[in-house]
Design brief:
The complex is a heterodimer of chains A (165) and B (571). By secondary structure, chain A is an alpha+beta fold. Helix content of chain A is 48%, strand content 11%. Chain A folds into two domains: 60 residues; 83 residues, 3-Layer(aba) Sandwich (Glutaredoxin), CATH 3.40.30. Chain A is built from seven helices and four strands. In chain A, strands 2-1-3-4 form a four-stranded mixed β-sheet, covered by helices on one side. The N and C termini of chain A lie far apart (47 Å). Chain B folds into three domains: 74 residues, Ubiquitin-like (UB roll), CATH 3.10.20.740; 105 residues, Alpha-Beta Plaits (2-Layer Sandwich), CATH 3.30.70; 352 residues, Rossmann fold. Classes of the chains: A alpha+beta (165), B alpha/beta (571). Chains A and B meet through α3 and α4 of A and β7 of B.
């Protein structure tokens, strides 16, 4: 394989990705590790990044893409500055976390798995954050918000909007 | 050796044999869907589940190794119920268009569903709404017929192409190209190995049969057909003949019965390719051109180089493929000689290949071949025309493109182009060189190597079929490990006899017979039985060069018979 150019983010990001590939390429089964590192560098796994990984490992892009789409931990879409994660684990779910998720989606005008146009928020769902006593729970970044009701959502999101101004 | 019993029949097989293979030796067939000999063996479809002593629950026979004293039951109530439910689950998300499906009557899913008495609507699946991908002329994909057996993925990976793979997880999993690209945008080279691997109708070529019928019905058109070397060795399979039957005479007769046509022999332009390619090789050796020289008759291989190894483009022979040489020859020499306006001549090539459907649309080829149809499409036309194939008389090709050398005929098998070229090139280098047989380059071995000393020059050659092996050769040349002067590559494993446009055979045949060798043997028998073995001895070549081209690699020859390539890097 040769001559495949892919512009992968900033020069620093690209350099970091190249270093990760170079360090692990000879280890069998290194694809998962490289993808996790790449997602750490870019926040998500766009096509140029996946192409670079495929090229670096001498495997097909479809093989890389197959692994990326198999695991929920990998994202094809960019994540927001504030990553919202609504818990849909059993305890939160029976306490109505689906309504919390719906409220967050409504408030931000995007769906779960997406990112707002201004890049401020992205929404994901998760399975149990280990705070079942506070159900229903959502996390924004590393902050945990418990005992939520839909009417509390707007105020929380507004505080992040304010903070970014 | 390991002793076991399958359905109470004692079997002795070598260690490491799978239960499926052991059952075959006892004449017991275990149903399979995802398994395909030499291509795919992953144990994922759960059709081959059997009961075996020492195992918890049912085991997949295709991947389960035999053990001493094991007792296997392949046909218990438990096995049958399991298979039936697996089939019904597959049918729940299968587009049941069986009345008009390309593979009706030749579909593994349909056959097993009937055998197991399945209720196709037992489980209600989600509505099937996915668009058909017909972006590429070589392969059309219908995701709603796919059963996720992954045989196409295995075939594509084995070709070192990897244009398709499983995407997503669980119920949402499906086969597609990365980022849901269309096949035309993907790295697909059009070889069609996925089509012949598919057990159902999810993959097929984009058919041009309708256009050919329209041309046949158009009184202003003169229609000519020509058939590729390997088609004679495979067309019979579509009419129930055993694998490896040469049906050349009936094939010609059948095409004549499709309409007012002339039927030519593409082995003639295979000879012409050799005339040009051998001269080009000798020229490159004597004048220091780019070596090794690669053959260029396989459009899947050419596309592979353009996409993945563009640095090797100068090494590709500039010769057009026999299909395109014939197109050029017919639209120039033949039209001129017979006073036909080239736009009134409709040229149909019958080829074992899906990539050739793409090749004839390449801009460099100027549309000289109007339609390229596969062996499968020709069989379909013959059936539609109501021609009773097996009762046809044997008929001969039409002049002036009938007589060929044996060298032209063996183009259809891996090593054939190399051998035909060596016959001519060796004589060009040494007028007294009389060797005709080059057994070192024959056979469906993945990579063959040989060196010949002719007139003080050592010619190092290699032959590879299957793009995985082509990749090995290219990487070896790049690293300096491998050194050659002339290399033949065919994209499909075994060459054109095993092309992506050849008849799709039931798994029971594919898993038990060596298609590549049986079909190739039919071509080598033609070569042996031909009085003319060397392309340069063919009387047709004599006429063409005297009347039209002058000499191989002449200016006129370059205009009509040679082409150019362009880099198209893809990953």
């Amino acid at each position: 394989m040769e001559h495949c150019e892919a512009k992968c983010g900033t020069a620093e990001q690209e350099k970091a990705l190249e270093a990760v590939i170079e360090a692990s390429r000879s280890t069998p089964g290194c694809l998962m590790h490289i993808l996790q590192e790449a997602q750490g560098i870019y926040g998500y796994l766009p096509m140029p990044v996946q192409k670079k990984i495929a090229e670096g490992l001498g495997i097909s892009l479809s093989e890389v893409y197959g692994v990326v789409t198999f695991y929920a931990q990998f994202s094809l879409k960019p994540k927001g500055k504030n990553r919202i994660s609504v818990c849909l684990g059993t305890a939160c779910y029976v306490k109505g976390s689906d309504k919390i998720l719906a409220e967050v989606e409504k408030e931000l005008g995007i769906k779960c798995g997406e990112c707002t146009e201004d890049g401020l928020f992205s929404i994901d769902s998760c399975r149990c954050v280990g705070a079942c006593g506070l159900a229903p729970v959502m996390m924004i970044g590393d902050e945990v918000y418990g005992k939520l009701t839909p009417d509390k959502v707007k105020g929380i999101l507004d505080s992040y909007k304010e903070a970014s101004k | 050796m390991v002793n076991l019993k399958i359905n109470n029949i004692p079997v002795t097989v070598p260690e490491g044999t799978t239960v499926l293979e052991a059952a075959q030796t006892a004449g017991i067939e275990i149903p399979t869907l995802c398994y395909l000999k030499d291509v795919s063996c992953v144990g994922s479809c759960r059709m081959c589940l059997v009961e075996a002593t020492g195992a918890r629950g049912l085991v997949a026979a295709c991947v389960y190794p035999v053990a001493e004293g094991m007792e296997v039951q392949t046909n218990t109530e438990k096995c049958r119920k399991s298979r039936q439910m697996t089939l019904e689950l597959m049918l729940s998300k299968h587009k049941k268009e069986c009345l008009a499906c390309e593979r009706a009557g030749n579909c593994e899913l349909q056959r097993l569903s009937v055998e197991y008495g399945c209720d196709p609507n037992y489980f209600e699946g989600e509505p099937l709404t996915h668009a058909i991908d017909d972006s590429a002329p070589y392969v059309v994909r219908d995701r709603d017929k796919c059963i996720n057996c992954n045989r196409c993925v295995a075939a594509c990976k084995k070709q070192a192409v990897g244009a398709i793979g499983p995407i997503g997880r669980g119920y949402a999993v499906h086969i597609g190209s990365a980022f849901e690209m269309s096949l035309m945008e993907s790295v697909c080279v059009g070889c069609g190995q996925c089509i012949v691997a598919c057990p159902v109708g999810a993959l097929k070529e984009r058919t041009t049969v309708g256009e050919v019928w329209a041309a046949l019905a158009d009184p202003s058109k003169k229609v000519v057909f020509f058939t590729a070397p390997s088609v004679r060795a495979t067309l019979g399979e579509a009419f129930g003949y055993p694998v490896g039957t040469n049906v050349e005479g009936k094939m010609v007769a059948a095409i004549r019965r499709l309409g007012n046509v002339e039927v030519f022999n593409m082995d003639v332009t295979a000879d012409l390719t050799i005339m040009e390619e051998a001269a080009e090789l000798v020229n490159r050796i004597q004048k220091g051109g780019a070596l090794p020289m690669f053959t260029s008759c396989c459009p899947g291989w050419v596309k592979f180089v353009e996409q993945k190894y563009p640095a090797f483009l100068p090494n590709l022979s500039t010769c057009k493929s026999p299909q395109e040489m014939f197109g050029g020859l017919l639209k120039t020499y033949y039209c001129k000689k017979n006073g036909i306006d080239p736009k009134d001549l409709y040229v149909v090539s019958v080829i074992p290949c899906t990539a050739k459907k793409y090749e004839c649309h390449r801009p460099e080829m100027k549309g000289e071949v109007d339609a390229a149809i596969t062996t499968r499409e020709l069989a379909k036309m013959i059936k539609m025309a109501g021609v009773k194939f097996d009762s046809l008389p044997d008929e001969a090709f039409d002049d002036p493109f009938a007589a060929c050398s044996g060298g032209g005929t063996i183009f259809g098998a891996t090593g054939g182009v190399m051998e035909a070229a060596l016959r001519v090139a060796a004589q060009l280098l040494d007028g007294k060189f009389e060797v005709i047989d080059f057994p070192e380059v024959r056979g469906a071995v993945p990579i063959k190597e040989a060196a010949y000393n002719v007139a003080g020059v050592t010619i190092r050659v290699a032959v590879a079929s299957g793009l995985e092996n082509a990749k090995t050769i290219l990487e070896g040349i790049k690293s300096g490990e491998r050194k050659y002067d002339f290399v033949e590559i065919m994209a499909c494993p075994g060459g054109c006899v095993n092309g992506g446009g050849q008849p799709t055979l039931p798994d029971s045949i594919r898993n038990s017979q060596n298609l590549k060798e049986l079909r190739a043997a039919a071509l080598y028998a033609c070569d042996k039985g031909n009085n003319i073995r060397r392309s340069s001895d063919s009387p047709v070549m004599d006429v063409l060069y005297k009347e039209y081209f002058g000499a191989p690699n002449s200016k006129k020859a370059h205009e009509v018979l040679h082409t150019t390539y362009k880099a198209d890097p893809r990953i």
